[in-house]
Amino acid sequence: MQSLSTPSPIKSLIRPRPRVTRASPNKLVLQCIYRSDSVSFPNGVGSNRADWQSSCAILASKVVAQQQPIDKSISAGDSGGVADHVAAVNGHKTSVDLNLVPLEKATSNSNNSSIKPHQLQKALTITDLCPAPMHGSQLRVAYQGVPGAYSEAAAGKAYPNCEAIPCDQFEVAFQAVELWIADRAVLPVENSLGGSIHRNYDLLLRHRLHIVGEVQLPVHHCLLALPGVRKEYVNRVISHPQALAQCELTLTKLGLQAVREAVDDTAGAAEYIAANNLRDTAAIASARAAELYGMQVLADGIQDDSSNVTRFVMLAREPIIPRTDRPFRTSIVFAHDKGTSVLFKVLSAFAFRNISLTKIESRPHRNRPIRLVDDANVGTAKHFEYMFYVDFEASMAEVRAQNALAEVQEFTSFLRVLGSYPMDMTPWCPSRGDDDDDGGNEKNPF
Q1: Which segments constitute the Prephenate dehydratase domain (predicted)?
Q2: 250, 310, 330, 412: which is the annotated catalytic residue?
Q3: Which of these is catalytic: 41, 170, 312, 328?
């Protein structure tokens, strides 16, 4: 709105908020919003809500009009000229001189073709304000890591043709969804070799996002170096500590007498070597990371176990509606005040209803990490208070799952459903270096 020539009090209507930007591949900008404060216009517009809405509508129409080419032959004295124009919006007339351009006077572009009404900017409709679709090419999906990460590949598998948004931390990916910068987040929760990613379990409890799906991704490691570097010249190998552990036997078989050094992630390791031109250092990362950062693959498929897969979950601001027409998984977290003695009763609620548990994970209670063993609170023996994360194969649309949770609630002091979502039923095979296996790493196991 840079070409408006309105009185200065109008500026008080605009209260900018900080913009949030993302550098690449395409800039993502959150525009500032406007708030209607009571203001008195010196040229006749009152301070009531109707006049304020009318003035805002006129300002908006002026912006649209000034974006169109104007015929220089139009003068202020012409019939219907801008100087004599009196605006009327929603039945409220105002004498504000905004120099509006009459539609019939707006003419030509470079081809001397008149501008049709349907070529003007369309008004917003309720469809424009609806949330993004559950699946589709317009979704913005946040992941932790740099381009070439396994999380990026998982985001592409979960939401094909999505706009992947890299984040430097897991916490940032959660906040990106909460702040509407991203529509979804795809984050790892467990690996078949490295186990659970505890950081993300803690963040699931801290944030109010919902699990809406899962995806499993095989891991395919490669040994990368700068072009022209031979294996015998490498005296240092850098990568995420889990990647180093998953490739230790193979690195020994290759005869590498190199120091292992842990860094935050594998794709970042490849980026670091390329940026600093380190010709004595190799990285354990993906084939796609080699393409992105201009490195060569010294050895392909160097993971010690080919059956290496990471499970990712998709997070959204709103839960999905559970169904019974396909296999569903439900994730919950609970705590209880009477120590681990209640755990058997909780688990029996699922066993009695023939509900299979696929995972149980305990984490120390953040607010009450330690409790005394005896009820008198005078003893010295202590143990941790725990939060329990449980995944079970049933949909919340099933009566047996609802009854199981109703019984669990009787024995627990805290119970929360993290999500009820479709299981990933795609066929899985050991990593072979396919396109789905490309990627780097995040700051936790794959």
Answers
A1: 140-317
A2: 310
A3: 312
Helix (H, G, I), strand (E, B) or coil at 170: helix
The residue written with tokens 């993290």 in the block is: 418
* Confidence category of residue 207, pLDDT binned at 50, 70, 90: very high
392 among known catalytic residues: no
- Residue-wise pLDDT for 139-179, tens only, equals 999 998 889 988 999 999 999 989 999 998 899 999 999 99
- Written as one letter, the residue type at 357 is L
- Is the four-CA dihedral 243, 248, 249, 255 of positive or negative sign? positive
Task: Tell me the pLDDT tens digit for each residue of 65-92.
Answer: 455 554 444 444 444 444 444 444 344 4
Cα–Cα distances in angstroms (integers) from residue 361 to residues 219, 247, 332, 364, in the given order: 23, 26, 11, 10
Lowest mean pLDDT among 54-58, 65-69, 343-347: 65-69
Side chain identity, residue 49: R
Dump the DSSP string for 401-418.
Answer: HHHHHHHHHHH-SEEEEE
* Biggest alpha carbon–alpha carbon distance for the chain: 95
Question: Measuring CA to CA, which residue among 250, 309, 268, 295 is closest to residue 436?
Answer: 309
Residue 310 annotated in active site? yes
Q: What is the pLDDT of residues 9-32, one digit of tens each?
A: 444 444 454 444 444 444 443 333
116 DSSP 8-state letter: P
Give the pLDDT of residue 26.
47
Give residue 406's Cα distance to chain centre. Answer: 32
* Per-residue exposure over 125-139, b if at least 16 CB sit within 10 Å of its own CB, e if not: eeeeeeeeeeeeeeb
Confidence (pTM)? 0.63
Which stretches within 233-368 are classed as H helix?
241-246, 248-253, 266-276, 287-292, 343-351
DSSP 101: P
C-alpha distances (whole Å) from 429 to each of 148, 161, 223, 432, 436 are: 21, 23, 22, 8, 11
What's the rounded Cα separation, in Å, for the pair 347 and 391?
11
| Type of residue found at 304 | D
What pLDDT is stored for residue 241 in this prediction?
84
